[in-house]
């Protein structure tokens, strides 16, 4: 029996462990609170693992001396959070009672069965945040005690989280894999209102591959759970760059999601500035400094955001006042565009962001669209396949803005002068690859872009930019290089279908051959029908009825 149990333990997959974590909270609360409960414990687990590894290294190098082992600076130098512990003392009936507390994962596991485990978890979150200034405002406070679950449920969850370790699952980026799983799976189960914190990883990967954020400041004005920043770092690592040359700056209006982003970045060791607090980018810009040079912007703003300002708010805002209008309050699509344009470095800034397809041709946005077109900042408009997002099945557009479309050398490539041109790409037919996400009840299928497809899009884009003009050619039903002069009034439409050549496949039909085939099939149908009627008449005659 022992051998059998050992075999089951050995074969336990990471996906099974992660699924069990979600199941442990099934029916306990909302999708959002369950997500925060799981990710919060995963944060404590990974912080604990990093701390213990760093602690062992300090002891090996300096001995088990408190001045070293309990010195925050030794941990910070290794990009590890210091995890405090201590003893509370209080007088009860003239006697001093002592109560141990700790923020370290091993201690939490050892005390998982205690009646006040929820209080212990909340204490751990508070003490870690207090001792580590970069985590200020990031961790959930007084959360587990108000979660409304039993101590048995919390112990079950802790035991499942405890199984996620490097010894069992030898993965290069175990932290990233776990965080990505929980963010993705809870997004897939979310409603439209609470599922906007996560952008599918393949889309973020595509944006990073196109704008190539190798060094400088990466900014996201609506950063959600921080996925754009994570993929920026992964892009740099994939291409053997130096992640220390990238700094990330962002903002998020939803407090829970802002905390999620700070945890997501902190546990991965990504330095960041997400502002002093969660706040609206439009009404409380946390990064107004005029001397802040933004090299890259990656963003997935809420689609067709309504009531983003009051009727008389932001009328004279510098982000759009120079154009002589203020974007309409009923839809924030162009407010996001003008905000992004105002932030980009005027000489070399590059942005990749997503918007609902309505922004391409909505007649209510004509005056805004005209200004964006005439600015000649648009480099590419790429319509993505339908049903890629977890909370909507619509197709959306990836916009690439570039403030330097002149001939230049970029990342080892010689680029031609693309001023006055826009690349249009239509990927709506690229819907053959589907991923299935397991939910508590059933599953959900979503379209994904494969690595090969992402590289194909990148190849089209890079070939279009290339100084060697023989590398690119328009492809019917896929891509077209258009002149800005082709984008005219009255609507200044940016819909790729207006510029990409679409083949009339009806013209490929051999009509004479098709008519012969149809006539032959109709003749067979009529013969079968006639035979059937004859058989029916004979049957009625056989029982004494004549139906002629």
Please write out the topology.
Layout: H1 2-11, H2 14-24, H3 31-62, H4 66-69, H5 72-76, E1 85-92, E2 95-102, H6 105-110, H7 117-131, H8 151-162, H9 174-189, H10 201-211, E3 216-220, H11 227-238, E4 246-250, H12 255-267, E5 272-273, E6 296-299, H13 333-343, E7 350-356, H14 366-374, E8 378-383, E9 396-402, E10 408-410, E11 413-415, E12 421-426, E13 434-438, E14 443-447, H15 451-465, E15 479-483, H16 511-542
Parallel strand pairs: 3-4, 3-6, 4-5, 6-7, 8-12
Antiparallel strand pairs: 1-2, 7-9, 8-9, 10-11, 12-15, 13-14
Helix pairs in contact: 2-8, 3-8, 3-9, 3-12, 10-11, 10-15
Could you characterize the architecture of this molecule?
- The structure is a single chain.
- This protein is of the alpha/beta class and 548 residues long.
- Helices cover 39% and strands 14% of the residues.
- It is built from 16 helices and 15 strands.
- β1 and β2 form a beta hairpin.
- The chain starts with a helix and ends in a 6-residue tail after the last helix.
- The relative contact order is 0.08.
Q: Can you tag this structure with a few keywords?
A:
548 residues, 3 domains, alpha/beta, disordered N terminus, Ferritin, Rossmann fold, 15 strands, globular
The average pLDDT score comes to 90
How much beta, percentage-wise?
A: 5-15%
Q: What fraction, in percent, of the residue positions are helical?
A: 25-40%
| Class derived from helix and strand content | alpha/beta
Give the name of the CATH superfamily of the largest domain: Vaccinia Virus protein VP39
Q: What count of structural domains? A: 3
CATH architecture of the largest domain: 3-Layer(aba) Sandwich
Count of helix runs: 16
Q: Give the termini separation.
A: 81 Å
Residue runs with pLDDT of under 50 for 5 or more positions: 3-9
Largest sheet composition: 9 strands, mixed
Order of the strands making up the biggest sheet? 5-4-3-6-7-9-8-12-15
Remind me, CATH topology of the largest domain? Rossmann fold
Q: What is the molecular shape? A: globular
């Amino acid at each position: 029996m022992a051998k059998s149990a050992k075999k089951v333990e050995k074969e336990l997959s990471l996906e099974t462990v992660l699924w069990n974590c979600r199941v442990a909270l099934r029916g306990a609360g909302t999708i959002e609170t369950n997500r925060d409960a799981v990710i919060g414990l995963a944060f404590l687990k990974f912080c604990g693992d990093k701390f213990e590894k760093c602690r062992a290294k300090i002891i090996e190098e300096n001995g088990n001396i408190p001045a070293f082992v309990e010195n925050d600076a030794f941990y910070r130098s290794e990009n590890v959070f210091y995890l405090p512990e201590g003893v509370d003392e209080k007088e009860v009936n003239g006697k001093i009672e002592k109560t141990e507390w700790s923020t370290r994962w091993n201690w939490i596991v050892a005390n998982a069965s205690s009646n006040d485990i929820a209080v212990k978890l909340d204490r751990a979150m508070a003490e870690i945040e207090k001792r580590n200034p970069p985590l200020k405002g990031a961790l959930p406070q007084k959360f587990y005690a108000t979660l409304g679950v039993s101590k048995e449920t919390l112990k079950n969850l802790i035991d499942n989280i405890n199984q996620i370790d490097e010894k069992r699952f030898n993965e290069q980026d175990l932290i990233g894999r776990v965080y990505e799983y929980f963010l993705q799976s809870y997004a897939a189960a979310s409603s439209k209102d609470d599922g906007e914190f996560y952008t599918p990883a393949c889309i973020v990967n595509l944006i990073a591959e196109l704008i190539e954020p190798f060094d400088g400041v990466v900014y996201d004005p609506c950063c959600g759970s921080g996925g754009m920043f994570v993929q920026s770092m992964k892009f740099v690592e994939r291409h053997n760059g130096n992640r220390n040359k990238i700094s990330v700056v962002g903002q998020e209006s939803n407090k829970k999601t802002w905390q999620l982003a700070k945890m997501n970045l902190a546990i991965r060791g990504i330095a960041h500035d997400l502002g002093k607090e969660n706040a609206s980018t439009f009404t409380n810009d946390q990064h107004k400094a005029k001397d802040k040079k933004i090299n890259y912007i990656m963003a997935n703003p809420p689609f067709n955001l309504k009531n983003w300002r009051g009727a008389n708010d932001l009328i004279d805002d510098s982000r759009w006042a120079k154009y002589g209008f203020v974007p309409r309050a009923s839809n924030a699509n162009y407010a996001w565009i003008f905000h992004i344009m105002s932030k980009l470095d005027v000489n070399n800034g590059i942005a990749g962001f997503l918007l609902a397809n309505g922004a391409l041709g909505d007649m209510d946005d004509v005056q805004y669209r005209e200004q964006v077109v005439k600015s000649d900042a648009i480099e590419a408009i790429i319509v993505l396949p339908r049903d890629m997002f977890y909370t909507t099945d619509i197709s959306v557009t990836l916009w690439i803005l570039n403030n330097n479309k002149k001939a230049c050398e970029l990342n080892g490539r010689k680029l031609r002068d693309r001023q006055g041109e826009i690349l249009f790409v239509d990927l709506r037919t690229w819907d053959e690859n589907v991923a299935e996400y397991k939910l508590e009840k059933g599953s959900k299928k979503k379209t994904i872009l494969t690595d090969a497809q992402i590289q194909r899009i990148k190849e089209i884009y890079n070939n279009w930019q290339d100084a060697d003009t023989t590398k690119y050619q328009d492809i019917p039903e896929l891509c077209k290089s258009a002149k800005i002069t082709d984008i005219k009034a009255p609507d200044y439409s940016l819909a790729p279908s207006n510029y990409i050549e679409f083949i009339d496949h009806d013209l490929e039909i051999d009509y004479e051959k098709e008519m012969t085939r149809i006539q032959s099939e109709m003749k067979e149908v009529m013969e079968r029908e006639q035979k059937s009627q004859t058989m029916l008449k004979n049957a009625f005659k056989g029982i004494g009825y004549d139906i002629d």
